[in-house]
Amino acid sequence: MSFWDGLRPGRSMDFASGSAATNSIELTKRHPTVSLSKQGAATGNLRVTLTWQMRTSDLVGKKRGSGSLLRHPLKMFQPEPVQAHTQSMVNVDLDLGCMYELTDGSKGVVQPLGHFFGSLNSPPYVKGSGDDRFGSGSGETLYVNLDHRESIKRLLVFVYIYDQTPAFDRTHAKVTLYPSNGPRVEIDLEERAPQARSCAVLTIENVKDELIVRREVRYVYGFQAELDRLYGWGLQWGRGYKTKVGGS
Fold it and tell me: Which residues pair with 171 in a beta bridge?
């Protein structure tokens, strides 16, 4: 076990829609928001997933040295060195969490750390599936019961690295929202932030009975307490521990 210390949305009505073939909406810096209500997707259970893959080498970076690769083609298969790490693969444990604020004023967090898994059919109407230590295809999942959207004021979905090398720049991570109806919403964590330990990924805000999803992708070098200060949540944070076995 290891020691752990441990979130205000804006709004705009722009969004980037994916092609009909992919049936997805990608939120970007240029087009950061989408209305679930206008998409007809503000009911039922909203599934939020985190998936990632580790990089053992950065082939995109190697393409810049294509001349060298032509002379030494086997170099393409050599892993890039990782600063302050002796292994070719960085060991990263990404966790998915959500801070919530309900319309009755209650606030809290749903996350694997501390086994705060929430509840789907009672407050906070957000439930976590557990902890995936290996970034498998199923990833980690949060569920939000949008049939109780009138009770939800705002949510902040975040990702953090627990007890391992801070290496967001060595992972290909994506958070995807799967509404009960309409296209999925995708947010890539593509920015390079090698020393960051946490990332505010998106907010969901109830604005005059309209649910607005906003891309944030803001990296911080601390943990939940720093995200809390950034978004004005006002929670009390302390030490947290996570067992060596993933949550149920």
Answer: 54
- Dist. CA 59–CA 230, nearest whole Å: 35
Which positions ≥6 away from 134 have C-beta within 8 Å? none
List the one residue out of 165, 182, 169, 173 whose CA is nearest residue 47. Answer: 182
8 Å CB contact between 110 and 123: no
Most confident of 6-10, 181-185, 190-194: 181-185
Reading phi first (left if > 0) and then psi (alpha if -120 to 50, else beta), residue 84 is in left
Phi, psi of 212 (to 5 degrees): -110, 125
Please answer whether residues 13 and 193 qualify as being in contact, where contact means their C-beta atoms are separated by less than 8 angstroms.
no
pLDDT digits (tens, 9 = 90+) for 42-92: 999 999 999 987 765 544 444 444 454 455 555 444 444 333 333 445 566
Domains and CATH numbers, the chain: 24-56+90-231 (2.60.60.30)
User: How much is the pTM?
Assistant: 0.75
Query: H helices of 91-201, where?
Result: none
